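Handout for the seminar on molecular recognition.
Each group receives one record of this type.
Step one: identify the two inputs.
Step two: read the structure output and locate the region that could contact D-xylitol-5-phosphate.
Step three: write two sentences on what you found, then compare them with the reference statements printed after the record.
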Amino acid sequence: MAQIEASILSADFARLGEQAQEAESAAVDAIQIDVMDGRFVPDITFGPGVVRALRRLVRVPLDVHLMIVSPERHLSAFAEAGADRLIVHQEACLHLHRVLQSIRELGIEAGVSINPGTSLTVLEEVLELVDLVQIMTVNPGWGGQPFLSGQLDKIRRLRELLDKRGLGLPIAVDGGIDQATAPLVVSAGASVLVAGSSIYNDRATVAQNVTALRASAG
Ligand code: DX5
């Protein structure tokens, strides 16, 4: 069964706590908090204080997606704030192996993410250091962007690589995940669906959107 992570990037920032609670009540498997620094990606979003505030409100795992340069500067702050997993971008790390080791030393899960233009080969030496690989199916920076279907082949190749190495790591996908694209990415080998605008929108409630997304993923 695919896991659903609600990305709060598309939530109503004036009601962030309530929107996180709505996602938890909708039985999402985790909440993904998209941290942006205005350098790795153009927008600026959340810091450790928002993680700390949400940690007080919900029990569901908090998955912090660090779209920031030199994330090693902030790992302990986000861990102390209550993150259950820190996902760093390979493109943002000068010493990716050491950054992932540092996350594990904090006693929380480590994830690595790559952008659409980045090849899987950059992950070959660190797959034993992570608990999840996240494939970006949009160029990061905003919610609501169209899904890049060219990434489906990358998901398939990653699944083959992990299976060949005997690594049962989950593959997360992030960007443009909705009822139409969810079955495509699951068939390709993804098992963690990060969704923002298909969960937080004015077309239906959070609960209705999560239910529909889960159903579409099979
Ligand atoms: C990078 C962000 C977004 C977000 C999901 O831009 O990481 O991908 O989580 O946004 P949606 O689901 O609206 O594409």
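Reference statements: The chain is about 30% helix and 20% strand. The helical segments are 16-25, 48-57, 75-81, 96-105, 151-164, 182-188, 206-217.
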